[in-house]
Amino acid sequence: MKRIAGVLLACCLVQPVTAAEPTTCLVLSGGSARGAAHVGVLEALEELHIPVDCVVGTSMGAVIGGLYASGMSPQRIREVTVSTDWEDLFTDRPARERIPFRRKQFDNLPIFEFEFGLNRSGLTLPTGLIAGQKLDFLLKALLLNTTVVESFDDLPVPYRAVATDLATGGMVVLERGDLATALRASMSVPGAFSPIRIDGLDLVDGGIARNLPVDVARDWGAVRVLAVDISNPVRPQEEDISALGVVSRTMNMLMEQNMDISRQSIGPADFYIKPDLGDMGPGDFDRVEEAIEQGKAAVLAEQDRLRPFVVSAGEFESYLEEREQRLTQRGSSPVLDDLIIEGLQRVDGGRVTSRLKTKAGERLDLNVLGRDLARVYEMGEFERVEFDLDPGPHGNLLRIHATEKTWGPNFVRFGLELEADFRGSGEFAALAELNRVGMNRLGGEWRTLLAVGEENRLLTEFYQPLNRKGRWFVSPGFIASREREDLFNEDGSVSRFLVDSFEGRMELGYQFGRYGEFRSGISRGRLNTDLDTGGVLENASRVNTGGFRAAITLDQLDSANFPRRGFFLQSELFLSRDGLGAEQEYDQLSTVLVDAGSWGRNSLVSVISFGSDLGTMLPPYGEFTLGGFLNLSGLPPESLRGQTSALARLVVYREVGRLPSGLGRGIYVGGSLEAGNAWPVGVKPAWGDLRPAGALFFGVDSVFGPFFLGYGRSDTGDGSLYLFLGRPF
Q1: Residue 312 catalytic?
Q2: Cα(537)–Cα(530) distance, rounded to whole angstroms?
Q3: CA distances from 120 to 157, 235, 448 (A)
Q4: Cα(329)–Cα(455) distance, rounded to whole angstroms?
Q5: How far does the signal peptide extend, from start to end residue (predicted)?
Q6: Could you say which DSSP state residue 307 is in?
Q7: Paired strand residues for 607
Q8: Confidence class of residue 10 from pLDDT cuts 50, 70 and 90?
Q9: Closest C-alpha to 522, from 456, 465, 477, 568
């Protein structure tokens, strides 16, 4: 499905009227993706000239019913439902190309995608896997014409939404307030979506309390009910006993219990229908068009039973005209008389307003506003960033409400790094990252990374923007590590060294927004090398290091794991100088360029990297290395060392499946063609020296990071199986 290109600003304004006691009420149940069938039901009802006096909905039924009650035609609802990229809509994370570069830097680490908070009580969890940032904006934009409505009785079709009080489990009937917020509350599945607070109550999916709210329509005064049941069937236990399956089954059982009560209340004057949606599951949003057609066909097949609800063509035309009279035309771009930011506690308001292009005194442009809210959300410090348009007595007031993450400002993420070639070579590390944000009004943050395993690392950095837009920054930091390095000798033996390094840095940089950054600065440290195994090094080495570093990085890849489009460029120059404490002077330049493209489900990634001593003499600890998975596959990791190196590789892969929602994205099979080498002192690089290699692999893009199982083969005929958890590109 294509992502909805844009949501047009609704051009209607509801005029308050007094709703008569409803005669016929349409009741729409919840059912997630299956709820798209409601759109087809609405189309069929209008084709058959069946008017409804009110709508009551739960969860997805509340969404479809709310859009219809706002005055939107079934045809327009179909267009929105089919053209929306639902997978993207249920992902809070913005498109990677648009994320500020500071956040992209973290993507290149083998860190899990989910984060925790840290306070005095320990680790805390977010209130839901999905905050609903994109969903909120879509609903607000679609329902902008209802902003003057206080009571849902005053909508073109009077309306009620059903939610569940998280504290008591009781049913809450929403009949006034912001319509878009009511829809969000009704569909907030516990654990998946964050609860929505309305009038002091934390509200979640209404299906838990009443999935088919027939009694709500009765209590409202409905004489007849048109009930549409698209709930999920309870499947045999053996079909799914996974953790996600247990959660889904529990929800279904809770809903089915109250559904039975609702079904039993259906009387002879009512109409009940359950469209046959086959094996369509609650998460099958790629089948919404199929569900629409099934819903429409199910109603049209019941024309005889529906005859008591049908009116003449003239009467139905009068009904539509009466509904239309509740609407008056309005300019599609209202002028904003004022704009305020609400909800800020830790974050400085100037950092938010500096990211907004929407201004008071100008006409509202939803596309511009959408990008504004995305930029604020991309700061990484907010759970949700929403808007409300309040057309009060003093003009149109735009309220931007930014909800700071309740589990912040200390954020913790964990990760795993693994590379094993099943020949005795392997590295494993467990990682933990702590990031303290919002340390001052300019958004200073303190980030610490700890890795424990074959290589132990501690990295801590204080990142201080110098203005509210965050372009210029200073970054003092400290790095300490202990790693084991293998030296492959000419006789085939391997010497292993323990290398301890300590380095302090002070850098000044400039960020190019979401595109990349340039930074430069000085460093000073110490390197201790001791023999671990083998017999090459007789004495331990103690070396002082220091120098000047400059680096530029540009990153527009759409994914750090399995990119389909975009590019990545990183070039770093290091000048070791005795004036900065170094015992040996040398120059070192390294560059890597990645370009990704795709066609259909296939992707092609080309990578070129090289390193040069720029005519100087690199010490052993400054040499370039090659070997390992997709790095001259088939050779042991870092088995080639030299003063100069070059590597080119073409990696092609095809998406052959998808992981369940919440566990990741694609499943891939692919392969690589590689050529490269590392040249020692005194050897001039030549094209004829390039060594070929290749690999075949199976890959999974999971929330725990990219996972690879592959086989590589080098020019020497050496082959190796690889198990790799991390980012190889």
Answers
A1: no
A2: 8
A3: 50, 43, 18
A4: 67
A5: 1-19
A6: G
A7: 594, 649
A8: very low
A9: 477
Give the dihedral of Cα atoms 9, 13, 19, 24; nearest 10 deg. Answer: -30
- pLDDT digit string, tens, across residues 710-726: 999 999 888 899 998 88
Marked catalytic residue, from 92, 153, 178, 205: 205
DSSP labels for 571-599? EEEEEE-GGGT-SS-EEEEEEEEEEEEEE
Cα gap 626→624, rounded to integer Å = 7
Backbone angles phi, psi at 411, to 5 degrees: -115, 135
Separation CA 290–CA 298 (nearest Å): 12
Give the model confidence (pLDDT) of 221-256 as tens digits. Answer: 899 999 999 987 665 554 544 444 555 666 677 777
Q: Which residue has the tokens 């680096």?
A: 551
Neighbours of 434 (CB within 10 A): 15
Q: Catalytic: 672?
A: no
pLDDT category of residue 494 using cuts at 50, 70 and 90: low
Structure tokens at 249: 């089954």
Token pair for 61: 């039924």
Query: Residue 205: what residue type?
Result: D
In angstroms, how far is the first alpha carbon of the chain from the final one? 28
Buried b (16+ CB within 10 A) or exposed e, 307-324: eebeeeeeebeebeeebe
Q: Of 312, 320, 257, 348, which is closest to residue 52 (Cα–Cα)?
A: 320
For residue 352, what are its two tokens? 């938010």
Q: Going by C-beta distance under 8 Å and a sequence separation of 6 or more, which residues neighbour residue 398?
A: 336, 338, 339, 340, 358, 360, 364, 369, 387, 388, 389, 390
Q: How many residues does the chain have?
A: 729
Catalytically annotated residue among 59, 609, 672, 720? 59
